[in-house]
Amino acid sequence: MTTEADRLTVVTTASPTRKRVISIVSHALLIIASILMLYPLLWLLAASFRPENEIFTSGISVLPSINWNLESYVRGWNGLRVSFGQLFLNSFIISGLSVIGNVLACSLAAYAFARLEFAGRRFWFAMMLMTLMLPYQVTLIPQYVLFLNLGWVNTFLPLVVPKFLAADAFFIFLMVQFFRGIPRELDEAARMDGAGPWRIYWKIILPLSTPVLATAAIFTFIWTWDDFFGPLIYLSDLRQYTVMLGLRTFVDSTGMSDYGGMFAMSVLALVPIFAFFLFFQRLLIEGIATTGMKR
Amino acid sequence: MATQVDTSNTTPTGVAAPSYWRGVWDNHAPGYLFLLPWFIGFFGLTIGPILTSLYLSFTHFDLLTAPRWAGVENYVRMFTNDPKFAASMRVTFIFVIFSVPLKLAFALGVALLLNRGMRGLPIYRALFYLPSLLGASVAIAILWRQIFAGNGLVNQVLANFGIIGPSWISNPNTSLWTLIILAIWQFGSPMIIFLAGLRQIPQDMYEAASLDGAGKWRQFWKITLPMLTPVVFFNAIIQTIEAFKSFTPSFIISGGTGGPINSTLFYTLYLYNEAFGFFRMGYASALAWVLLIIVAAFTAFSFLTSKFWVHYDD
Amino acid sequence: MTLQIGRRQFLMGTSALAAAGALGIIPTFAQSAGLRQFFWGGQARADRTYGVNDLFKAAKGVDVDSSFLGWGDYWPKLATETAGGNAPDIVQMDYRYIVEYAKRGAIAPLDEYVGGALKLDGFDEDQLEGGKVDGKLYGISLGANSVAQLVNVTAFEEAGIELPNRDTTYDDIRAMGEAFLSKNIRGGMRVIADGSGSEPMLDNWLRQKGLALYTADGKLGFDADAAIEWFTMWNQMRADKICVDAETQALDTNGPLETTMVVLGKAAMMPSNSNQLVAFQSLMTDTATITNYPRIAPGVGGGHYRKPSMFFSIGGSSANKELAAEYLSFFINDLEAGKVLGVERGIPCIPAVRDAILPTLNEQDQIALNFVANLGDLLGPLPPPPPAAAGEIDISLLRTLSQEVAFGARSPEDAGQYFVNEAAAILARQA
């Protein structure tokens, strides 16, 4: 397995000083950019430690208040009748199952579109893409009625089952693009050895697709974690709420809101997705060691 | 590799022998079997609501009572008597035209930079993805206001150069740009996809090229870019579709109003307000289908022209 | 380092997840012997409501399965559930939407339960009227509130200007504004927010003139001249820097409290509601209070009215209407319940309950209560329920026009004329 260092390079003919200047400049740019990326998180962090009535009077400052305290965290965690621990668990379940469903189902569909010939392939591919184009606001009600008739309202099922049925055309399309980049010679070689489509899929395509599968896993987890609209419509019992949905109940534009609690719980909600990302991104960089057979 | 129908299997009367059907099954079945989960989902969960929404676009539906047939009234109104339709179209198009290319440029640029392998790479990669993690939360809305309001961070910085900026976020001439910047700032997702794509380019190609004496630029143009085109294509299509459907940034920053003076009225926000704010789901469905047709036309065009610049290995 | 997930670990992990997920598969709402309730609000309101539900359970043995969301999320979800035929038994309803929901049968008429399951003895007449559509009772008011100006007391003290009081007129506001300008505190704080896009403020101003926003038969209650006068008045105030400028006012996105002028520190007063004092105070380090909307001239009153802040209604397709009516009755009559609820939803409509809770209120709540109870000559008759298009006219038309005038994209004369024409068109379309 090649490591990061091996990937480092492409031989250049630039002089050492030029390389150093480029390096310094790029690092400087990266640092400035990083601050831009990090700033909102720092603000969020600072706000979560402020007393409620200082949150909006401290402007853009990311420095902690002199009255900083952990009240927001305590209040936020216990604020709802159900402890946030339960909400985190719900979010984990939904997002975890979604990842498994998406990776399995979308890779199956993508393999069919990318590698197999069958009548109507182009037509179904176009249909698949079309499902991406309609805004969800107008399919919301018919879908709700559908799930209501199935008896799935007030459960996790409307949120998870579609993932096992490859409803996320985004990932099918993504994987199709990646699968098409895997050399056909490998398929041919396997076919020579008598492998059928399933074996090619399972033994060749999938193992060589770790970057895109990892990407799909990361995105699925983060997007389902962050999604509040699905849970909003389909979950009514507070004990089933996800973290994001729970956060939304902290802020009500007509009356008292708990901004401090919301910020505090937002910070905590970032931890799992950030962790998931860090954990899986190693799969992204691991790339595949093909033997480089290129025409 | 089109499937050839093997006619050597027909009987004298021209009827296909069982082995013909066997051939058909063997050739087409795997595709359909692999697609089975998707078919179940498509026919079971997806197509019904989609067709229902098409039907609804020809009705007046106030959500609280049954839909009433309205023929093409909704479409007529949209094109002849609805200034907000035109306004939201304009806003959305501007958003798409500016945010998508810039977002992709940043994503690709940073991905290339990060792909060179450097100290602290994982940290930088995570940092650049962070804005996308924050998603569209109330916190972002509050923060964006703090940065772009009259006395916000941006204007404080500009004041050092003697420039008095407007209240970027609440001035109708500039408010859309704060949303474009928000979209670009969250370039993490396409960046990750570019990174994955870069990772899939075999390293030995670069080694072979440099052995042949090719410099870095040549390698970029001749190896990286062409091998990356499938991913570029994907990102371009997806980001454009998503940009057309963009809802949450405007929803949280304008409070769902699309203001000031409809300057941030994204098309789907307009649609959402029509559906749930004013109980005109029929009209909203019509709006959605018009959007779908526009997006589908654009996508079809992209696919047709893609053969000129996208290199697949098959 | 490759990530190794052995097949066994994968299977174990997946089955663990699936097992955990099974918990989420069984619907958890109460059996049909109970009631389903849905309301908007924050955690504070939820705590109080759950408290009452516990009391109800202790008294009648009925489970109330309750959920809540913020205002912005509440309506799409309610509409979705109603469209699907799955509306809750007890629904919190707003003045703005009650006509729409009532006319479509999405909420049930309550008249048949009055006197029986639903006891309304001593209920304020005007609050009762507020819940009627076409003569039938559709919603029980959960509390009265009134429009009010939110005032930043500390800012006034800092500027050394006297606080507005019951007799303050628009001209007085001008004078205060000029004083504020010269004192120039806090980076140019103005005395008042731009109220040209505030429907309650327009309503109040019209009523003082003897006009109205809408007539009983759902038409516009004023003409272009009044509209032009309204926009011109605010245009002048903007030009003279009495109220905040266009860009600043546009920061208020008509929803989140943290975007409002007083919280942002841009103005010392702004239009609000009496029951929001507590909410605003919690976001500010300065002291806040409420006062009435300005009079158009000394001695002219009648602009205010005691509005039902929100209602409870019964879902049109509910199978438990009688039981729900009992719940409603308990909610508004029971003294212990009243103490739990306080004035969070508004001032209770039954005098006995008001008296019972008075000793338990905190300072801001008492200010709000006293304000609503003592409006005096500022009080006018309750207007008819607004037509269904009122929401659209407010959000799409009034707000946008006020912003256009503020940014100079339209003249006040043009705006006034356009407003009246377009509003009439919207009203006609809805009819």
Helix and strand topology:
The complex is a heterotrimer of chains A (295), B (314) and C (431).
Chain A: H1 4-7, H2 16-48, H3 71-79, H4 84-115, H5 121-130, H6 136-150, H7 157-164, H8 169-179, H9 184-192, H10 197-208, H11 210-226, H12 229-234, H13 243-248, H14 259-285
Helix pairs in contact in A: 2-14, 3-14, 4-7, 4-8, 4-11, 9-10, 11-14
Chain B: H1 18-34, H2 36-56, E1 59-60, E2 68-69, H3 73-80, H4 83-115, H5 121-134, H6 138-148, H7 153-159, H8 175-185, H9 188-199, H10 203-211, H11 216-244, H12 248-253, H13 267-277, H14 281-306
Antiparallel strand pairs in B: 1-2
Helix pairs in contact in B: 2-14, 4-8, 4-9, 4-11, 5-9, 9-11, 11-14, 13-14
Chain C: H1 7-22, E1 35-40, H2 43-60, E2 64-69, H3 71-83, E3 90-93, H4 95-103, H5 125-130, E4 132-133, E5 136-137, E6 140-141, E7 144-145, E8 147-152, H6 153-159, H7 170-183, H8 199-208, H9 224-239, H10 246-249, H11 261-264, E9 269-273, H12 277-281, E10 288-291, E11 307-308, E12 311-314, H13 321-333, H14 335-341, H15 351-357, H16 363-373, H17 390-406, H18 412-430
Parallel strand pairs in C: 1-2, 1-3
Antiparallel strand pairs in C: 3-12, 4-5, 6-12, 7-11, 8-9, 8-10
Helix pairs in contact in C: 2-14, 9-18, 17-18
List keywords for this structure.
heterotrimer; A: 295 residues; MetI-like fold; 2 domains; 14 helices; disordered C terminus; C: alpha+beta; D-Maltodextrin-Binding Protein, domain 2; three-stranded antiparallel sheet; 18 helices; 12 strands; 10% strand; globular; disordered N terminus
Question: Could you walk me through the main structural features you see in this protein, from its secondary elements to its overall organization?
Answer:
The complex is a heterotrimer of chains A (295), B (314) and C (431). Chain A has 295 residues and is mainly α. Helix content of chain A is 67%, strand content 0%. Chain A is built from 14 helices and no strands. In chain A, helix 4 (84-115) runs antiparallel to helix 11 (210-226), helix 9 (184-192) packs antiparallel against helix 10 (197-208) and helix 11 (210-226) runs antiparallel to helix 14. The longest helix of chain A has 33 residues, at 16-48. The two termini of chain A are 24 Å apart. The model of chain A is unreliable at 1-9 and 287-295 (pLDDT under 50). Chain B has a two-stranded antiparallel sheet with strand order 1-2. Chain B has one domain (83-306): MetI-like (MetI-like fold, Orthogonal Bundle). Chain B is built from 14 helices and two strands. Chain B is flat and about 80 Å long. Chain B has helices spanning 18-34, 36-56, 73-80, 83-115, 121-134, 138-148, 153-159, 175-185, 188-199, 203-211, 216-244, 248-253, 267-277, 281-306, and strands spanning 59-60, 68-69. With 314 residues, chain B is mainly alpha-helical. The N and C termini of chain B lie close together (10 Å). Helix content of chain B is 68%, strand content 1%. The longest helix of chain B has 33 residues, at 83-115. In chain C, the strands form four sheets. A five-stranded mixed beta sheet of chain C has the order 2-1-3-12-6. Chain C has a three-stranded antiparallel beta sheet with strand order 9-8-10. Chain C has a two-stranded antiparallel sheet with strand order 4-5. The N and C termini of chain C lie far apart (69 Å). Mean pLDDT of chain C is 88; it is low at 1-6 and 26-32. Classes of the chains: A mainly alpha (295), B mainly alpha (314), C alpha+beta (431). Chains A and B meet through helix 1, helix 2, helix 4, helix 5 and helix 6 of A and helix 1, helix 2, helix 4, helix 5 and helix 6 of B.
